[in-house]
Amino acid sequence: MKSMTGYGLAHGEVAGLGFSVQVNAVNRKGLDVRVVLPTAWLELEPVIIEAVKKTVLRGTLQIRIELAASGASGGDFDDAAAGVWLDRVGAFAAKRGVPFAPSPEVLVQAALQFRSRQEPPALEVARPAVVTATDLALSAFSAMRASEGAALLADFESRLTLIAAHVEAVAARAPDVVTAAREALLKRLRDAGLALDAGDERVLKEIALFADRCDIAEELTRFRSHHAQLKKLLASDGEIGRKAEFILQEMGREVNTTGAKANDYEIARRVIELKNELERIKEQLANVE
User: Fold this and answer.
1) Angle ∠(12,134,60) on CA atoms, nearest 5
2) pLDDT averaged over 10-residue windows placed end to end, the chain, 289 residues
3) Fewest Cβ atoms nearer than 10 Å: which of 97, 111, 136, 163?
């Protein structure tokens, strides 16, 4: 299982120029890949998208490749151009009688404004390094998604165990519902002064009709089947999210029908707990690929 969200970062260098590759993704039902590249390397976009499609099935994913001057100095600046700019600002201030004594911050601003900008190497030269760094960033991204997916799977498994316990409790309670209804019917008859025997055909018919209306055996059988399918799916590889969402929808339908038919407080309480757990799983499934 893999999460749809994640982050990956890698660095590379080509012809003395450093660059970084950042990969991040958020939830989306389909796959949407957005690539941000230096203009000189735009032709690499299809190559990068194909690399993404080999490892990612769903989500909005952005890959940003940014240039950075190699070395700790952060690049050189045009000393002469910065000096001319400062002289012109000083002359401008003097004409207006304003003292001009550049602070260290102003000097840094001048240096940055006239920093030398190194053009990125040609595509043919940069391609191997960019592709390698992109693969490394995608590997880090996939590792993070797998780690988050493992945590999600552990949460799903604990909730499915709890759901199974609720379902078995409902199944154990179901036979008692008819018995309780039979006793309640006989009590109402006695309280009304009607001397009808428990074996009276009319009583038996009423009880039989009630038993048929509140029979949840089929719903529980289908729910158990969906439960087993979901548990197996969550432990599998590949795309999980969409299939799991469909199975979860079917489980919810069976729970709703069970609640409507059961006519019993204890079963109704269990149905509410089942709905809550299914809703929590649904929310978490939004993060699963």
Assistant:
1) 135
2) 93 90 91 93 94 91 84 61 88 90 86 72 92 96 94 94 95 78 60 61 62 77 96 89 92 92 86 95 90
3) 97
Give the number of residues written for the chain. 289
Structure tokens at 267: 């079963």
- The residue with tokens 């609640």 is 259
| Angle subtended by helix axes 123-191 and 45-53, to nearest 10 | 40
- Which listed CATH number (3.40.50, 3.30.230, 1.10.3470, 3.30.110) goes with 6-72+117-147? 3.30.230
Supply 274's token pair: 């089942």
Tokens matching residue 216: 């949840």
Domain boundary assignment for the chain: 6-72+117-147, 79-113, 149-285
Tokens of 175: 């036979």
HEC assignment per residue over 251-262 = HHHHHHHHHHHH
